[in-house]
Amino acid sequence: LHYVPRALLLFALGFLFAVIIDHLQKEHNITRYPPNIPKLFSSASWMPLCCGFAGCLVGTLYPYLDTFFLQRPQRLRREWSSVIRCCGGFIGVNYAASKLPWTSSVQVSLTLALLAVGLWFLFDRTWHGFVISAVFATVGTWIGFLLVSNGAYRWTQADFFGMRSWLPCILYSSCVCFGSIGRQL
Fold first, then answer.
1. Average pLDDT, the chain
2. Which CA distances in Å does 32 have to 28, 64, 65, 76, 95?
3. Contact between residue 120 and residue 133 where contact means Cβ atoms under 8 Å apart
4. What is the pTM of this model?
5. In the Cβ-directed half-sphere of 162, how many Cα atoms lie within 13 Å?
């Protein structure tokens, strides 16, 4: 696809995934928003917009860096069924974080970290993909911390500086998912 339709589709998918994941987390009483926050589809109005922009950025950056570092587009499993499986893996990691009963935050964090790296291994396997996902997970966690610190967002059972310790794993998995989508487009 050309750049503008690709960017719009990635933005729309990021927006949609944010609404779905946020609904899943609110339904299982993991997150809360202050009552004075403007809502969009029962999420804070900034959440789907920021995730749409991030999905667009990650989905555009992956194929560009494939061409830059590999001197060719990445060809590992480039069919839509692989992309759909990757998206299913991302949703599964989120579902595991919100629905399964965990005995400790270390258990959930280590399990989800292994699942996130497994998702990268199955659907990416590039070092620049690993680094991009790690950087976005770090930056996203830092932005989440700033939002929590300023009262725009709240976790019901925070276990690490007002945050959930598994958030970087979710963000890492989302980067692998949107990188896979961006490569296919």
1. 86
2. 10, 36, 36, 39, 17
3. yes
4. 0.88
5. 15
Q: Is the dihedral of CA 116, 95, 13, 35 positive or negative?
A: negative
Structure tokens at 34: 């202050």
CA atoms within 13 A on the CB side of 181: 27
**CB contact at 8 A, 42 and 63:** no
- What does the pLDDT read at residue 73? 63
DSSP, collapsed to helix, strand or coil, labels residue 40 as strand
Question: Looking at residue 78, what is its pLDDT?
Answer: 64
In the chain, alpha helices (H)? 3-27, 46-70, 80-99, 105-123, 127-149, 167-184
Residues 104, 144: Cα–Cα separation, whole Å = 21
d(CA 101, CA 132): 30
**Residue whose tokens read 């725009």:** 152
Strand partners, 44: 39
